[in-house]
Amino acid sequence: MTRNQTRREGFAVRRPGGALRAAALLLALLLVPVGAPTAAPSGPPGFADLVARVAPAVVNIATRKVAPARSEAPSFPQVPPGSPFEEFFKEFFDRDREQQQQQQRRSFSLGSGFIIDPEGYVVTNNHVIADADEISVVFNDDKEVPAKVVGRDQKTDLALLKIDGDKPFPYVEWADSDQVRVGDWMVAIGNPFGLGSTVTAGIISARGRDIRSGPYDDYIQVDAAINRGNSGGPSFTMEGKVFGVNTAIFSPSGGNIGIGFAIPANLAKPVIDSLKRTGRVARGWLGVRIQTVTEEIAESIGLKEVTGALVASVTPGGPAASSAIEPGDVVLEFDGKKIDKMRSLPRIVAETPVGREVDVVIWRKGERKTVRVKLGELPDDERVTELGKPQEPAKPTPGASARIDEFGVVVAPITPELKSRFQLPDKAKGVVVVEVDPDGPAAQEGIRPGDLIVEAMQEEINAPADLAAKIKSARQAGRKAALLLVERQGDVRFVAPRFKE
Length: 501
Hints:
Elements: H1 3-30, H2 48-54, E1 58-68, H3 84-102, E2 104-117, E3 121-125, H4 126-129, E4 134-138, E5 144-146, E6 148-153, E7 158-162, E8 185-190, E9 198-209, E10 219-222, E11 234-236, E12 242-249, E13 260-264, H5 265-278, E14 284-285, E15 288-292, H6 295-300, E16 309-314, E17 330-334, E18 337-338, H7 344-351, E19 357-364, E20 367-374, E21 376-377, E22 402-404, E23 409-412, H8 416-422, E24 431-436, H9 441-444, E25 452-456, E26 459-460, H10 464-476, E27 484-488, E28 491-495
Antiparallel strand pairs: 1-2, 1-4, 2-3, 3-7, 4-5, 6-7, 8-9, 8-11, 9-10, 10-13, 11-12, 12-13, 14-21, 15-16, 16-17, 17-18, 17-19, 19-20, 22-23, 23-24, 24-25, 25-26, 25-27, 27-28
C-alpha cells in the first residue's frame, strides 16, 4: 500500500466516523422533550414578595346607611260603598301600610383602607365613610370586624378608624413622600368595584397636582389601575411603605384610564397623627388673604420672577397682624421653604405646628425682608369672602371725576351719592370706579363700576388726581403695568392692568 493510498484510505475511514457523530448529535436534539426547560433571559423582577409582605394590612371598608322606607300609600281598590269587602280591604291595606312604614332599607358602600399600627388604627378616605351608620373592616380572609370613627378631616378627605382584636394587627409604615420621584415604580392595593383585594402596578406619573378638590391639593399622580372602590387604599413604594392614599381618578367613563391621584404621605401623616391624638386637626394659621402673582404684578413691583404669594389683606387680630406683614407683600419663603406658587403657602402653613415662630421672607417695595411670625390655630369658620354681585354701570359725577386713559376707567371721589348707589361701606377709602371701557386693560383684569381703588403702586389713593399721578410716575419709570389694590364689597385684591400702548 502506498503512502498516498494510506492517506486516502485513512481519510476515508475518518469521514464515516464524523458523519456518525453528526447524526448522533442531530438525533439527540430531536429527542429533547418539547416542554423541557431551556435557558432564557430573565424578565423584570415581580412584586409578589412585596405584596405578600404588605397585603395583610390592606383592608376593605364596608359601610351601611339605614334609610327610611318609602312611605307611598298602597293602592286601595275601588269597591262600592257599604260593600262587605270594604272593611276587609281597609283592614288589610292599613296593616300593610304599617309594616312598610316600620321597615327600613339599607344602602351599602365599599372602599379601601390600611392599618398603620398593631393596635388597629385604620386610614381611609372621609368620603368612603361619609354619612355611614355602620362601618366594618373586612380582611382578606373575609373576617369582618366592626369599626368606629376616631376622627375625620373634610379638607384633606382623610379619616381614621379603630378596630379591636385579641392580638396585634398587621400594619404598614409611612414613606417619606418627598423622596419619591416621577418614574418610580409603585404598587396599589385596594377593593375595586367590591371585588376584594386587588393588586395593580405602575409608575408615579407626576407630582403637585391640583384637582380643585380642597384647599390643600398636592396630589401625586399615578398610572396604576385605580377604580371605584380603591378610594382610601394605599400606594406603595418598592420598599413596601405607603407614599400615598388613593383618593380620586380622572375618567370621563368612571373607569380607569391611567390617571389616579393619591394624597402624599407627608400631607396625610400629620393629619392622621392629629386625629389619633385629639380626634380633630389643628392647623397653623397665618391670617392673611393671598392671591396669585401674575406676570403683570411681578413686573409692576420689580420682582424678577413670577413667584410667591401676594398678600391681599391681613386679618385683624390674626397672627400676621401682630407681625410686620402688610398688604402688598409677596411671601417668597416660609419657615425655610420656598413658595414657588400661591397655593403652596396655605398647605405649608397648615402643616406647621400651631404656636411655632417662623421666619417669613417677603418682597416689599423692591427689597427682600425677613419678618418673624408666631402662628395661631386656623379657626373652623375661616372662609374666603366671595366677590359681590356685579353693579349696574353708573354715570360719572360731573366735574369731580377723572378719566384714566391708560386703564380705560373713570374714577371719582367717594360721595354720599356714590355710597348709596354702589352700597359702599361708611368707612370706604380711595376712589370709586364709575365707568369702565369694556375693551380696556382694567376690564380685562375684572375691574367694574362700584369697585374702590384703595392703593396704587402700594401707596394710598385719596383722590382721582393721586391715581393719575401714580400712573404717570409708573410710566416714566418704564413700567408696563401698575399695581392697584381694589376693594369690592369688603373683598380686597391686587390687580396689575397693563398700560395701553
